[in-house]
Specification:
Blueprint: H1 2-32, E1 38-39, E2 45-48, E3 50-51, E4 78-81, E5 92-98, E6 102-110, E7 131-137, E8 144-151, E9 156-162, E10 165-167, E11 175-181, E12 184-192, E13 203-214, E14 219-222, E15 238-244, E16 252-264, E17 277-292, E18 295-301, H2 329-332, E19 341-342, E20 345-346, E21 368-369, E22 377-386, E23 391-400, E24 403-409, E25 412-419, E26 421-433, E27 438-450, E28 462-474, E29 479-491, H3 494-501, E30 524-536, E31 542-551, E32 568-579, E33 586-599, E34 605-618, E35 623-631, E36 634-636, E37 646-648, E38 651-659, E39 666-677, E40 683-694, E41 699-717, E42 726-744, E43 749-770, H4 778-781, E44 782-784, E45 790-793, E46 798-803, E47 806-811, E48 815-831, E49 834-848, H5 855-864, E50 868-876, E51 879-880
Parallel strand pairs: 2-15, 3-5
Antiparallel strand pairs: 1-2, 4-14, 5-6, 6-12, 7-8, 7-13, 8-9, 9-10, 11-12, 13-14, 13-15, 16-17, 16-50, 16-51, 17-18, 18-22, 19-20, 21-24, 22-23, 23-26, 24-25, 26-27, 27-28, 28-29, 29-30, 30-31, 31-32, 32-33, 33-34, 34-35, 35-38, 36-37, 38-39, 39-40, 40-41, 41-42, 42-43, 43-44, 43-48, 45-46, ...
Length: about 900
C-alpha cells in the first residue's frame, strides 16, 4: 500500500513538472511571435516605439493595462556573460511606449524555474538578486546613458552608464514595480521625460540598451549585444526610434526639507560650549529647473547632509592628506560631467566645499571656544547640459559662510572668525567631433576667500586652476591617444605663499633640492603639469598603453582639487592579456604587466617598479586574484618631510584574494597583502576575511575583519629641530571591523546599520639620527642611539637623546588609537521622490601617546570612551510646477 502511494506521489510530481515546463514552453513560443527589429548601418538593433492612445498604465508590474496591447514586443536577447553571443538560458521581452510626459517600459523575464528566481530585496542602488533594466542615451552622444533597473524583489536602481563603467550616485524620480506570472516575472516603469536630457529635434533618435541579470547563473543578456571586447559600452548599444514632437517643457522640481537634530556628548566642567547637549532646527530647499530640454539648473539653499554615511576609520601617520569619497547627493549627481582626473589627482574635489574650519584659536588654560565641525554652505548652483551639436557644459558655483566661533577667555566673551566667506567656481566644457571619435575640452576653477582678519592671512586669497584635454580614437575606437595640460596660480600674503611652498605637496625647503628653495617674499605661486598616453583598449586579447605625466614643483590644486605631491615625472607601461571566452573549468581570466619609472622635475632618478597580476574566474563562480610587485632601491624626497632626500631599500609586495560564488546565500572571501623590505626588518602583513550572509530575501548581514601586523624601520618622528632628522622602528598592530546590516521591509522602507570599530597601537624603538642623507648604506645613513644615549622620562613622557656632545628632547611617539564610527538610518520613500529619514550617528574617538600594545586592553578602552550621539529626523517633499 505504501509503495502504491509513493508511486502516485512520484507520478503527480512528474505531471506537475511537465505542466510547468509545458506552460513555460508555451510562453516561450510567444517570444518568437514578436516584431523583427531593423538594423542600423553599423548592425545595431533598432526598436520602434510609439505614442499610445489608451489611458496611461497603473504602475503595479502587472502589464494588464489596455495600453500594453499597443506597440510591439522585442526579444531575442543574447548572452553578454558568460558565453558571449549565445542564446540566454531564459528569454526576455521588451516593450516601450511614451506620451507627452513619460516613457513607459515593460519587460517580461521568462523563467522555467520560477521558484529559483532570486527575489533579493535591497536598498536603493544595491545590485541584489535577479535584475532587469533599460538605459537611454537620450543625447545620443554615445558617451552617457540614463539607466533604470528593477530587481526581482522590487528594489530600484538608477545610474549613469558610461563607456568605461557606471555611476550609481545619480538619482532620478521615477516609478517602477514588479509582479510575478506562472513562468516569468515582469517589470513595469514610468520614467518622466523631465528626468532625461535630450535635444529639441522634432524626430528623436536615442541610444537604447536593455539587459537582464540571472543571479543563480551569473548570466547577463543584452537586447543589443555589447561585446566584451568593446570600444565603449555606450558606443555599442542599439537605437530607439519613433519618439517625435515632444512638447517643449520648462521643468521645475522642488524639494524643500526640514530637520530637527540633537547631539549628546561628554560634558566639560567649566566649558560653556560643552554642556553635553545641543539641539538645532533647520530648513532648506533643493531644486531643479529645466532651462531647456537639454539644460538643467540645480540649486541648493542652506543644504543639509545629515544622512551621510560616516567615513571609514583610519589612522594617518603620513604627511599626506587622505582622500575621502564624496557622499553628498548634490555633488554626487552629475559628477561625471565635472570630472577632470589627472592620475590620482583631481582638478575638482567637491569635499573642499563645506570643509572643517581652517583656523583654531590659541587658548590658554581655562579658556574655551565653540566647536565648529564644518563650514556652512549658504547655497550652491549647478548648470549642466549638452547642445545638439555636441557641446557639453557644466558650471558649479558654491558659497560658504563666514564662520565664527564664540570664545570665553580671560578677557571675556568674544566671537572670532575661523573661516572666511568663500566662493567656489567650477566650469567644464567638452566638444564631440566626428561622432565622438575626437573629444576636446577644458576646465577652469577659482577659489576666492574674503579675508578680513590678519590672523587668517595664512590662507590663500585666490586660487585659479584649469586644464585642457584631448582624446582621439581610431580603428573603430580600438586605439586612442589622450593628452592633458593643467595649470595653477595661487595668490596670497607672504605668509600664505611661504606656507604653501613648505607644505608636503611641495617641500621647497629641502636642503639638497638646489633647484627649489623657499622664497619668503613671494605673494603668488604658479605651476603646470601634463599627461600624454597612447594605447590600444579593445579589438583583441592584447591591450596596452604607455604614458608620461609631469607636475612642476609649483603646481597646486588643493584649494578646490586634490593633489598629494608636485615635482614629479612618471612614466608607465602597461600590457594586458584578456580572455573572456569560457574554456574548461575557467570562465574568464586576465594577466597584466606594469612597469613604472619616477623622476623629479629636473630629471633626477627616484626609482622604478614592476608588477605582474592575474585574475581568474572559474565556472563555479569563484574568483581569484594575485599580484607581485618589485620596487627597487629608491630616492625618497618626502620621508624626512622637508629634509634631504634619502635612499630607501627595495621591497617585494604581494597580494592574494579569493571570493566565493556571490550568487549563494552565504558568500565569503579572504584577502592577504604583504610587504617585505630588503632591509630584512621592515615587513607588513594584512589579513582581511569577509562574509556576506543573505539571511532572507530582505535581510542581509555583511562583515569584514582587517588585521595588520607591520614593522617599519624607517618611520619619521616629528621633532622641533630644524636641521636634525629622526627616524625609528615602529611596530604597529591594527584591528578593524566593518559591519553592515541591510533590512528592506519594502522597496520604499529600508533600515541600514553601518559600524566600524578601529584600533591601532604603535611602539617605537631603535631611534635613529640622520648623519649622511645621501649615503646608500644604512650603516652610514644614520646613527642608532644606544641604551646609554637614550633615556626615557616617564613624567614628561619624553626621550632624552645624546650624540656627539649634542642633546635632544623627543616626545614619546608611542600611541594607542581607538575609534568607533557608526550610522543607523531608517529611510522611507513615502511618496515618489519624497523621503523621511531617521538617523542615529554614534562616535567614539581617543588618541593617547602611551605604550600599551595589548589589543584586548584597547578594546576595553574603546568601550569606556564617552560617546558622541547625533539624532536627526529629516523630512523632504518633492513636487513639480
Amino acid at each position: 500500500m505504501m509503495q502504491r502511494y509513493f508511486l502516485l506521489a512520484i507520478l503527480s510530481m512528474i505531471l506537475l513538472e511537465i505542466t510547468i515546463i509545458t506552460s513555460a514552453q508555451d510562453s516561450f513560443q510567444k517570444v518568437k511571435k514578436i516584431s523583427t527589429d531593423s538594423l542600423t548601418s553599423e548592425g545595431k538593433r533598432i526598436y520602434f516605439t510609439q505614442r499610445f492612445n489608451a489611458a496611461a498604465p497603473k504602475i503595479d508590474g502587472m502589464l494588464d493595462d489596455e495600453c500594453w496591447k499597443e506597440g510591439s514586443w522585442s526579444g531575442n536577447y543574447l548572452q553578454h556573460l558568460p558565453n558571449e553571443g549565445a542564446q540566454p538560458s531564459q528569454p526576455s521581452q521588451l516593450k516601450i511606449l511614451y506620451d507627452d510626459k513619460n516613457v513607459y517600459v515593460a519587460i517580461r523575464c521568462f523563467d522555467y524555474e520560477p521558484d529559483k528566481i532570486d527575489k533579493q530585496l535591497g536598498r536603493r542602488d544595491d545590485f541584489a538578486g535577479d535584475i532587469v533594466g533599460v538605459a537611454f542615451d537620450s543625447y545620443h552622444d554615445r558617451r552617457t546613458a540614463f539607466e533604470f533597473d528593477l530587481t526581482a524583489g522590487g528594489s530600484k536602481l538608477d545610474l549613469l552608464l558610461e563607456n568605461d563603467g557606471w555611476d550609481v550616485s545619480w538619482n532620478a524620480v521615477w516609478e517602477g514595480k514588479v509582479a510575478y506570472e506562472d513562468s516569468a516575472w515582469t517589470a513595469e516603469m514610468k520614467i518622466p521625460l523631465s528626468q532625461l536630457r535630450y535635444g529639441d529635434q522634432e524626430e528623436q533618435i536615442w541610444g537604447l540598451h536593455s539587459w537582464r541579470w540571472i543571479n543563480r547563473y551569473q548570466e547577463e543578456s543584452n537586447w543589443n549585444l555589447i561585446p566584451r571586447d568593446n570600444p565603449g559600452l555606450i558606443r555599442s548599444i542599439g537605437e530607439l526610434h519613433g519618439i517625435n514632437k515632444l512638447p517643449k517643457s520648462r521643468r521645475i522640481e522642488l524639494l524643500p526639507y526640514a530637520l530637527a537634530k540633537m547631539t549628546t556628548y561628554e560634558k566639560e566642567e567649566g566649558n560653556p560650549f560643552a554642556t553635553g547637549f545641543d539641539k538645532s532646527f533647520a530648513a532648506g530647499l533643493n531644486g531643479k529647473i529645466g532651462l531647456s530640454s537639454d539644460f538643467t539648473l540645480d540649486f541648493a539653499i542652506n543644504p543639509d547632509f545629515g544622512q551621510v554615511e560616516a567615513d571609514p576609520a583610519q589612522l594617518n601617520l603620513s604627511a599626506f592628506e587622505i582622500f575621502y569619497e564624496e557622499k553628498r547627493p548634490f555633488f554626487l549627481e552629475g559628477k561625471n560631467i565635472t570630472d577632470f582626473s589627472f592620475g590620482n589627482d583631481q582638478l575638482f574635489y567637491s569635499r573642499r566645499i563645506g570643509h572643517s574650519p581652517s583656523y583654531s584659536p590659541n587658548l590658554n588654560a581655562n579658556e574655551f571656544a565653540e566647536r565648529i565641525d564644518n563650514t556652512s554652505i549658504l547655497g550652491a548652483v549647478k548648470v549642466t547640459g549638452k547642445t545638439k551639436k555636441g557641446l557639453s557644459i557644466s558650471i558649479i558655483e558654491g558659497l560658504t559662510a563666514k564662520e565664527t566661533a564664540e570664545t570665553e577667555t580671560l578677557n571675556g566673551k568674544d566671537k572670532i572668525t575661523v573661516e572666511p566667506l568663500t566662493n567656489y567656481f567650477v566650469g567644464r566644457i567638452q566638444k564631440d567631433i566626428k561622432n565622438g571619435n575626437t573629444i576636446i575640452g577644458g576646465m577652469f576653477t577659482t577659489t576666492n576667500r574674503f579675508i578680513e582678519d590678519d590672523y587668517l592671512e595664512f590662507l590663500n586669497k585666490t586660487a585659479s586652476t584649469g586644464g585642457i584635454d584631448f582624446r582621439h580614437h581610431w580603428k573603430n575606437k580600438s586605439y586612442y591617444v589622450d593628452a592633458k595640460l593643467i595649470f595653477s596660480h595661487i595668490k596670497g600674503s607672504e605668509e600664505a605663499i611661504t606656507n604653501l611652498q613648505n607644505a608636503p605637496a611641495h617641500y621647497y625647503q629641502q636642503p639638497d633640492a638646489h633647484y627649489l628653495g623657499t622664497d619668503s617674499t613671494l605673494t603668488s605661486l604658479s605651476g603646470f603639469g601634463g599627461q600624454f598616453e597612447i594605447g590600444k583598449r579593445s579589438n583583441g586579447r592584447w591591450r596596452y598603453n604607455t604614458s608620461l605625466s609631469w607636475r612642476s614643483p609649483g603646481l597646486d590644486l588643493n584649494d578646490i582639487g586634490f593633489m598629494q605631491r608636485a615635482d614629479k615625472i612618471s612614466q608607465d607601461n602597461n600590457l594586458s592579456y584578456v580572455v573572456n571566452e569560457p574554456s574548461g573549468i575557467i570562465r574568464e581570466y586576465s594577466v597584466n604587466f606594469n612597469q613604472n619609472n619616477q623622476f623629479n622635475f629636473v630629471g633626477d632618478y627616484l626609482g622604478s617598479s614592476g608588477m605582474i597580476s592575474a585574475n581568474v574566474k572559474f565556472k563555479n563562480k569563484w574568483n581569484y586574484y594575485a599580484h607581485i610587485i618589485r620596487q627597487g632601491k629608491s630616492l625618497d624626497t618626502r620621508i624626512l618631510r622637508g629634509g634631504p632626500s634619502i635612499f630607501i631599500k627595495g621591497l617585494y609586495c604581494s597580494s592574494f584574494s579569493v571570493n566565493s560564488d556571490d550568487s549563494k546565500r552565504l558568500i565569503y572571501g579572504l584577502h592577504y597583502h604583504t610587504h617585505i623590505f630588503d632591509d630584512k626588518t621592515s615587513v607588513n602583513h594584512d589579513f582581511s576575511p569577509n562574509i556576506v550572509y543573505k539571511i532572507t530575501n530582505s535581510l542581509q548581514l555583511s562583515t569584514q575583519l582587517n588585521y595588520s601586523l607591520a614593522t617599519n624601520s624607517m618611520q619619521y618622528i616629528d621633532d622641533d629641530y630644524e636641521n636634525d632628522y629622526f627616524l625609528a622602528r615602529l611596530d604597529q598592530k591594527t584591528l578593524g571591523l566593518t559591519l553592515r546590516l541591510d533590512y528592506a521591509i519594502t522597496p520604499e522602507l529600508t533600515i541600514q546599520y553601518y559600524g566600524n570599530p578601529y584600533i591601532s597601537v604603535g611602539e617605537y624603538s631603535d631611534f635613529k639620527l640622520i648623519t649622511d642623507a645621501r649615503a646608500e648604506s644604512y650603516g652610514n645613513l644614520y646613527h642608532t642611539f644606544t641604551n646609554n644615549e637614550l633615556v626615557h622620562d616617564p613624567i614628561e613622557n619624553q626621550y632624552n637623546l645624546s650624540y656627539n656632545g649634542n642633546s635632544y628632547l623627543v616626545n614619546n611617539p608611542d600611541f594607542n588609537f581607538q575609534q568607533l564610527r557608526s550610522n543607523f538610518v531608517i529611510r522611507w520613500e513615502y511618496k515618489t521622490g519624497s523621503t523621511l529619514y531617521f538617523v542615529w550617528t554614534h562616535n567614539r574617538n581617543q588618541y593617547q601617546n602611551i605604550t600599551n600594545t595589548s589589543i584586548n586592553d584597547n578594546i576595553d578602552e574603546l568601550r569606556g570612551i564617552y560617546p558622541e550621539n547625533l539624532f536627526l529626523i529629516k523630512f523632504n517633499y518633492w513636487f513639480t510646477l
